Predict the structure.
Amino acid sequence: MRNELQHPRAPDAVRGWINEPPQWLQVRASSLTPDGELLEADIEVGERDAILLAQEFAADELIMDDMGGRREAERRRLSVTGTIGVLRAAAKLELLDFRDAVDRLLRMNFRIDKRLLDRLIRGEEM
């Protein structure tokens, strides 16, 4: 995950943030060994590691946008949300303006199906 945030295509602000992370941030590696099904799943290493950490620490919710990773996490009965879900929750708490946050996100390298995004902006439940 840290590697993804440091990737040259990541926005400058994101790379700067992870290079000088806040004190509350803990970067951890899971002590669990991936099982055969997880190794066989068609997902990237970062998604695999996130699933392992969520399992190991009995996470309340896993934040993951990759569809294959989400399917594998849900198959393992993990609660999963994505970036848009986090933004919607923050908007409900009046911490941000949802449309503005999504517009800013789309100006970066974030991708989402236009039809899904339109439904989310209209406030339809998924």
User: Anything to note?
Assistant: The CA atoms of residues 55 and 78 lie 8 Å apart. The first strand starts at residue 62 and ends at 63. Residues 45-56 form the longest helix (12 residues). Strands lie at 62-63, 80-81.
